[in-house]
Amino acid sequence: MTIGEKITQRRLAAHLSQEILAERLGVSTQDVSRWESGEVLPDAEKLLQLCRVFGISADELLGENAKADDASDFLSLPLWRWSLRVISPPLAFAGTAAALTGLTGAVYHALTADQWYTDFGRFGTALRSIWCGAVLSAGLLLLAIALALLVFEVLLSKRD
Question: 0.90 exceeded by the pTM?
Fold first, then answer.
């Protein structure tokens, strides 16, 4: 959020018009409008006066508390969007763990196998006839789902 957007948000929350805020700060209405639109930034003295009028710290106005804004944005999301962000990381972790387990098991069984089908070779036989292939496939599927959810969330975030 830009400084201009924060000034607008705080002014509206305080139920002040641009004219009343300009009077309190000793500036013109055009100055307040230009600050809010982001054309220019208020000087240091006016920033301090803005902080006093709004009852906030300079850090809040200048954006030092961006993490708090991100947290409140996250909590204000609809439940289905929130669930996308919460479910994706564990899903990706589980997919990675399953895929690595399946791959490790397949490599182990391929190296220790004394017979194999000539069509598939050692590794193909291990993937096809032992639990490793199913676990590897399930892990890759979970990873694909987590990636699709992540892409969907990024596209939704860009739309907002």
Answer: no
